[in-house]
Each structure stands twice: as C-alpha cells, then as structure tokens.
Design goal:
Elements: H1 9-19, H2 23-39, H3 41-46, E1 47-53, E2 56-61, H4 64-72, H5 74-85, E3 92-95
Parallel strand pairs: 2-3
Antiparallel strand pairs: 1-2
Helix pairs in contact: 2-5
Length: about 100
Amino acid sequence: MRKPNDITLKEGIDKMLKVYRLKSKLDETSVVALWPEVMGKAVSNRTTQIYIAHKKLFVRIESSVVKNDLLMIRTGIIQRLNERAGSEVITEIVFL
C-alpha cells in the first residue's frame, strides 16, 4: 500500500541529482556518449576529442572536409543531440 508521501525510485534519484547539482554533468556525459550513435560511424571515426564546457560542445575533427560539412548542419546536430538527451544540454558547437 502506497503512503501519501512515498515517491518512486526514479523521482527519488531525480531529486537527489538536483540537490547535489549532478544533473547537468550527467546530461553532458550522456551527450558525449551519444555522439557516435547520432553522427554515425564515419564521423565518429574522424572525431579525436569531444567535451562540453559552459553548454558548448567542443569537437576536434581530423578531416577538414568532414568538419566543413558538419559546420553547415550545426543547428540540426544541436537539435538531435538535445532531443536524444531529453533536455537542452548544449546551445553551441565548436569544431576544432
């Protein structure tokens, strides 16, 4: 029997992440982990470094041709990554 102040495990974990301010870091980690899945094998094989700082995703691409192609579809990439993460984790992408 459920009591009025009982919460589910998911709600409890979400509250804990918010209290300890870990939710944003967890979301950032999930975006970095989603990069190969969202971008595909060809792009992920040419990605040498990826990290997030201040809602900016920094991606080092070793191929200038791929980098130029990604610059053109930058907004679509941001939308897909945020959509998969479930919240607005990144606002800008910087290709290095």
